[in-house]
Design brief:
The complex is a heterodimer. By secondary structure, chain A is mostly helical. Helix content of chain A is 51%, strand content 5%. Chain A has one domain. By secondary structure, chain B is an alpha+beta fold. Helix content of chain B is 26%, strand content 14%. In chain B, a hairpin with a 5-residue loop joins strand 5 and strand 6. Classes of the chains: A mainly alpha, B alpha+beta. Chains A and B meet through helix 4 and strand 1 of A and strand 1 of B. Strand 1 of chain A pairs antiparallel with strand 1 of chain B, so a sheet runs across the interface.
Chain lengths: 131, 270
């Protein structure tokens, strides 16, 4: 008697615990958008770090770059792969946006998906958006 | 099963502990070439940047041109600019007291209140005195800033990291020259033409002259120097061979509110 109730209770518990998985099975889920490499970035294929490092740590890199530029006036960054970059988000040829030309498809698509709202663009300007 | 004595156990544990410590040390030693940060090769350097302004060479037109080019290239908002109603609908009216300035022409008795004289030479009443951040040697704004958003660079430039500014305005209270302005509102609607080479600011941060650090880094002279038709010279105050030192050796110069001991780096030839 009590065995049946326990088994039934366990079954309900397992179903309830795994509910996010059931939910995802019945609703359509969106895969994380891939940042699109366009223009120069598509041909260069090499950034400051490897792809996965870049995905995980680009925010710390930008933070480090900012301190270096503003405080030490060091504006050239030679990465371990030997490539030299202009430590800037949006100004000049060799900056982030200088190579990744489309902000909407490179930055915004992932940030929107991940629901993060960095305030870079409150001050920094996308040269493409200035009319 | 082998019986372990306390002694042999401690021996093995000790060796293991050394091994655990050694691994990170070896990794650290073997990682030879990390990333390298360096200034631009064409950058201009100085031990202490300073400015000499020859007031005899400044006319109202030149003074206006200097402010104009500085403010345009640093995306300083102009509250006289007509706002694009379609892009920014429903903005509250501007308060002219909240204007933002990096460099501007001032009357002598405002720029040098301690040097005002009952019988001041007539021409001083009409000359435009260009005033800006003095990049003081003992900058009170740097001491006042609680977040180190304002700091003194090794080359003497008093500069801001706008990211760190929390908008407390202690620096504005500390600066005896009124060189700093606060963004009471989003400046973007009031920027006629955004210069892509310099960021704008956001609401809630203080801003001021940065001696065109972004241009010095590219080997160029500041905008005010280029627009001044020879009236403004920027150079190294600690280099006896520099042009600014030659001017200082040759002319009598004054600085603003010297008695306060802030040691301004902007000199005026009068």
């Amino acid at each position: 008697m009590s065995k049946n109730t326990i088994v039934a209770g366990l079954a309900i518990f397992v179903i309830a615990v795994l509910s996010p998985f059931w939910f995802n099975m019945v609703t359509a889920t969106q895969a994380a958008p891939k940042p699109e490499l366009l223009g120069k970035a598509a041909t260069a294929k090499k950034c400051v770090f490897e792809k996965y490092d870049m995905r995980a740590n680009h925010m710390s890199l930008l933070d480090e770059w900012r301190d270096s530029v503003v405080r030490d006036a060091d504006r050239k960054y030679t990465a371990e792969n030997g490539m030299t970059f202009n430590m800037s988000l949006s100004t000049g040829e060799n900056s982030c946006l200088g190579c990744h030309e489309d902000k909407a498809k490179f930055c915004d698509s992932c940030h929107t998906y991940a629901s993060v709202d960095p305030y870079c663009w409150e001050c920094h300007t996308n040269p493409k958006e200035i009319e | 099963m082998m019986k372990k004595s306390r002694r042999s156990f401690l021996k093995v544990a000790g060796i293991a502990a050394i091994g655990m410590g050694a691994a990170p040390a070896m990794n650290f030693a073997s990682s030879g070439s990390g990333p390298v940060k360096a200034p631009n090769p064409e950058a201009l350097h100085a031990h202490r940047w300073g400015m000499v302004i020859n007031t005899n060479k400044l006319t109202d037109d030149v003074a206006e041109a200097i402010s104009q080019v500085c403010h345009a290239s640093h995306n300083v908002p102009d509250f006289d600019h007509e706002v694009d109603e379609k892009k920014y609908p429903g903005l509250r009216p501007v308060n002219p007291k909240q204007e933002i300035k990096w460099i501007w022409a001032e009357e002598f008795h405002y720029a040098f209140p301690d040097k005002e004289d009952e019988f001041l030479a007539e021409r001083f009443h009409h000359l435009p005195f260009m005033v800006t951040c003095n990049h003081c040697k003992n900058a009170p704004c740097v001491q006042a800033c609680p977040t180190q958003a304002t700091f003194k660079r090794e080359d003497g430039i008093v500069i801001m990291d706008f990211h760190r500014c929390i908008g407390c305005r202690f620096c504005m209270a500390a600066c005896p020259y009124g060189s700093r302005s606060f963004n009471f509102r989003d400046p973007r609607p009031f920027i006629a033409e955004t210069d892509p080479d310099f960021p704008t600011r956001s609401k809630g941060v203080v801003e001021k002259c940065n001696l065109c650090a972004e241009r010095l880094a590219k080997g160029k002279q500041p905008h005010c120097v280029e627009a001044s038709e020879g009236a403004i010279v920027v150079g190294d105050l600690e280099d006896p061979e520099s042009e600014v030192r030659a001017l200082l050796a040759e002319h009598y110069t004054i600085r603003r509110k010297q008695a306060l001991g802030t040691e301004p780096s902007v000199y005026y030839i009068v």
